[in-house]
Amino acid sequence: MSFFSVEVVPKDPLWKLALAGVLVEQNGFDGVWVSEHFFNRNSLITLATIAKHTRKILLGPAVVNPYVVHPVMMAQQAATLWELSPGRVRYAVGAGDAHSLQRLGYVRTKPVEKVVEAVETMRSSFASLDTYKISDVKIFLGAQGERMLEAAAKIGDGVLVNWSNTEMLKESINHLTNPARPGFVKAAYLITSIHEDEEKALKTVIPYAAYLMVGASEKHLQRADVSPDYREKVAEILARRNWNELYRVARKDWVGFFSFWGNRRQLDDLVTSVIDLGYDEVVFAGPLGPRYVKALKNIASICRSARRRR
Amino acid sequence: MKRREIVEQLFEVLMSSVNSNAVPPQLGWRVFEKFYSQEIYDDEGFRLLVKACRMCEPEKTALALKGVFK
Fold first, then answer.
1. pLDDT tens, per residue, chain A with 310 residues
2. pTM for this entry
3. What are chain A's domains?
4. Which of residues 7-66 of B touch A (CB under 8 A)?
5. Residue among A19, A291, A294 minimizing CB distance to B32
6. Which residues pair with A5 in a beta bridge?
7. What share of chain B is helix, strand, coil (3-state, %, to 5)?
8. Chain A residues contacting B via beta carbons under 8 Å
């Protein structure tokens, strides 16, 4: 059985994020992941707001960074959110990217070890917190690299694989064999933009792909055929938030490596491929499309069709 | 053009806007409450929605009010 979720990006005001959460539930999705960036709204406050206005969908931040947030605080956040929405909480931990951490003054040393330690501390903290004793919070790891994927299979209840192309998703799933914990969830986290006019879909997704590209490892940059100098140029454009310049310098090859854009039929094909690869959950992340409500309805329709085919 | 269709176009304008920070939170939450209580199609809900849309997307709001926002 496939599971379908939507990422809500807290770049908008809280009232609008609440609207998005309600729309996600109304359109029949199973879960919401709220992305966590220090320069946007707080993901946990956003989730609490969505929790108060929804009944069924699962809720989780994706991903919280252990360099910035202590794992005991992560456990506290999850337990408090659970009291607001019992049985609906998931929580994703990830090491983020070196570029963003550098802006906060952190050095990203030993990211896999840092995340593993955070997950273990979180689990042990659930028992010692003076809250209702929760036992069903699923802890996910956000992963792109091989070692983080393997760590997820060893200690996670699930993994958010942050790739949007089938080649990387196929390579990634090979590192997720024999997970240690029962019910382990393999989720493909697709940065998505759909519209009948593919160029409009492309333009909408470029800033999201650019943030991912700028934060990617050297190895993945080489795979995407991006030079360090070009990456720095894009990083500098992002820092100035000069979108017109970004649209001018963006190349379809790397935007396609870090995101999906296209029409409804193309997304339908991608979703089918992702499920056939063995992923249990598809997360539609990023902008969804230049027309948010229309894109959400189209994606919901694709998910219903995928469920019927299974 | 029925009001229901215009409201749906206006709602798309609001949800697709990248300028939502221009809407004061008090107004944003009133729009949310009208949507959540399924009163967004009523006179007051419509008025609040138009007001919020005009603050973030004046040109697209004009198109939606004519029923031609794609």
1. 689 999 999 999 999 999 999 999 999 999 999 999 888 999 999 999 999 999 999 999 999 999 999 999 999 999 999 999 999 999 999 998 888 888 899 999 999 999 999 999 999 999 899 888 888 999 999 999 999 999 999 999 999 999 999 999 999 999 999 999 999 999 999 999 999 999 999 999 999 999 999 999 999 999 999 999 999 999 999 999 999 999 999 999 999 999 999 999 999 999 999 999 999 999 999 999 999 999 999 999 999 999 998 7
2. 0.97
3. 3-195+260-309 (3.20.20.30)
4. 8, 11-12, 14-16, 20-21, 23, 25, 28-29, 31-32, 35-36
5. A19
6. A31, A283
7. 75, 0, 25
8. 12-16, 18-20, 22-23, 53, 290-294
